[in-house]
Write a structure and sequence with these properties.
The chain is built from 12 helices and no strands. Helix 3 packs across helix 5 and helix 11 (213-229) packs antiparallel against helix 12 (237-275). The protein is 76% helix and 0% strand. It has helices at 4-11, 13-16, 25-42, 47-64, 69-98, 106-131, 139-159, 162-171, 189-196, 198-209, 213-229, 237-275. The mean pLDDT is 90.
Length: 276
């Protein structure tokens, strides 16, 4: 068995070196995940077993959001374990590949995508259902905002894969039906704008951080703990206001991503095609 540092170098380094990552990505996700990965390797757990366990934890954690505050806090812990499992399954898969310990199946990737598409929106919906009866303001409005926040999350996830989907499903089959892709060297106009205005780019990066599931769980955990220990906050006040804020923010990010995707899809498909 390799040391923790060796495992971190071999299984994690390429995931964060030279990349912009959301707040807490290394210290709260990759740093603890390697210890769970080491445990999984020692006990010969497969990536698919880890992914399934993570999905089960995510479903249970989401259901806990329907119940009183102590359950909500416990649910947040289970959702955090779901997030860690999403890191561990990939690290174990890379370990098995590097050490010729068996094949890694695409069904594991399928399970992983299901996890990302199901657990975040499910948790938001259960939070909405769990606080609606104690929220001190308009409950119909809260339900609308919670539903918008939940429905936005799968769209945010799918948006990242639309380039690959269009390339495989449409372009590769009949490239002659489409206008020529931009020439190599032509810059994506959206990236050019982002690189030209570094302050705007940084601001949007911070805003987009909020859609990261770890950040969502962290923010609701803070709200739940605040409501539990500080009598000044009425039941569900902090979590309800946070839910309303996300109900405004996430659809706006979906709209922004859709506009950016419309203007840059040819460049994305070109770059993906060159990597094949």
């Amino acid at each position: 068995m390799k040391s923790t540092q060796e495992l971190r170098k071999n299984l994690q380094a390429f995931k964060y070196e030279g990349r912009e990552r959301p707040f807490g990505y290394f210290y709260f996700q990759r740093w603890p995940s390697i210890f769970l990965t080491k445990f999984a390797i020692k006990h010969n757990l497969t990536p698919n077993q880890i992914t399934m366990a993570g999905i089960i934890l995510g479903v249970i954690g989401s259901i806990f959001m329907f119940f009183p505050l102590p359950f909500k806090i416990a649910g947040a812990i289970l959702l955090y374990l779901n997030i860690l499992s999403d890191k561990v399954d990939g690290e174990v898969a890379r370990w098995r590949i590097q050490n010729n310990l068996g094949e890694v199946y695409l069904r594991g990737v399928f399970l992983d995508e299901l996890n990302h598409l199901i657990i975040p929106p499910l948790s938001i919906l259960m939070i909405t259902m769990g606080i609606i009866h104690t929220f001190p303001y308009d409950k119909t409005f809260l339900t609308l905002m919670g539903t918008l926040a939940a429905l936005s999350l799968p769209f945010l996830r799918i948006n990242h894969s639309l380039g690959q989907l269009i390339l495989i499903k449409k372009y590769i089959k009949h490239p002659e039906l489409f206008a020529p892709l931009p020439m190599k060297g032509e810059k994506d106009p959206i990236l050019s704008i982002k690189n030209k205005h570094s302050l705007i780019r940084r601001l949007f990066f911070i805003i987009h951080n909020i859609q990261d599931f770890f950040i969502i769980v962290l923010l609701f955990s803070i709200a739940f703990i605040g409501e539990l220990i500080l009598p000044i906050f009425r039941p569900s006040l902090l979590s309800g206001l946070l839910l309303v804020a996300l109900g405004f923010l996430f659809p706006l990010i979906v709209l922004e991503n859709s506009i950016k995707g419309f203007f840059s899809i040819e460049y994305k498909v070109r770059d993906l095609k060159e990597k094949l």
